[in-house]
Amino acid sequence: MLLSIHVPKTAGNSFREALLRTFGARVFTDYGDWAGFNLPEVNARRQARETAMRTRRDELLASYDVIHGHFIADKYLGLFPEAEFIAFFRDPYQQAIAHYHFVKRNPQRPHPEARIVQERQMSLTEYLEWDAFHNHQSQFLGSLSIEDLAFVGLSERYEQSLDLFAHTFGHNLGEPFFENVNEGRMTQGYGVGPDERRVIERTRAADIELYRRARERFARQSRRMRISA
Fold this sequence. Notes:
Rossmann fold, alpha/beta, 5 strands
């Protein structure tokens, strides 16, 4: 079973569409846990959904080859006899700011973060300070480390990541295309002011270290597969 962790704003929607195009009905999409959002009521919801999902083990094994979605890795850890976890990561400065703008662009999304950001009229700095999202990317790994993943992709190296996926798993996902992007930021990153940089370095230190290790892992895997990274 391929377990594809969709960390928000790391090309996960684009990758999901590529998986669906290749694996079709053998892809199970698992959204709704509100993963990466650390509040007591959200954690309780996530635990209930994990318990329910683990009762479906035989169905999942029979019907699917890939599970992709916003879930913490521990949800499926140890559930299948053969499982390979994969994930994309992104520069934490860009990912944090991109996620804020995504929430602001989608105020009607049925997710408590959208409601809370709207009600509080959060600025970017206030959002970055919000402890529910500290180390947002790291939350998705749960008890896993970057070395436990069978494949590491980088959103900034999306095309090369697809090549690496094909060499690693023997499945060509086709030509890259992009879903759910901020069109004004497709070719250039978000500006990061000194105040935002200081807050991100303080509230996402684990994500910064995770991204450093993800880049190293990506480079090693690419060299091994003779792919230009």
